[in-house]
Amino acid sequence: MYRKILITTDGSTVSQQTACAGVKFAQQMGAEVLALFVAPEYQYPVYVEIIPPSYPSEEEYIEQMKRTGADHMSRIMRSCEKAGLAHGCMTAFSDATALKIVDVAEQEGCDLIFMGSHGRSGWGQILLGSVTNKVLSHTTRPVLVHRLINEPVDS
Fold it and tell me: What's the CA gap between 65 and 71, in Å, rounded?
């Protein structure tokens, strides 16, 4: 049914558990997996004339975020390898995370976006489910929302 599934992660315990569920789902479908980490865009210092020596250059920031993304997605990649699934990973840069997720799904030809939800309501849903809600409202592709009922324990 689905040939290519986009699984998003931000490196949190919640998203790691969601990603594991996404890989299991992809295995059931026999689908390829594309893991995605969206990093914030580089922020130039407010006062460009006075850049602290410890402030990273744009190139250093991009390389660090790519390493961070690869680290966050490594568990997904290992799970895909164990499951015998075709897989890939991508670090993208945007301050509008949800829109970038939608764009990547379209550009990469993903049939499904697999995302997590904390299962909260009220203010918790507004604050913590905003990326998922925005993806749902901006895409025409199917989105499977994996809901975590209990808060995971950090490992």
Answer: 10
Query: Do 89 and 70 meet the contact criterion of CB atoms below 8 Å apart?
Result: yes
CA distance 5 to 155: 26
In this prediction, residue 113 has a pLDDT band, given cuts at 50, 70 and 90, of very high
In the block, tokens 């026999």 appear at 30
* Topology, domain 14-43+56-147: Rossmann fold (3.40.50)
Predicted model pTM:
0.86
In this prediction, residues 109-116 reach a mean pLDDT of: 95
Residues 6+ apart with CB under 8 A from 25: 5, 114, 144
Unique residue bearing structure tokens 């699984």: 7
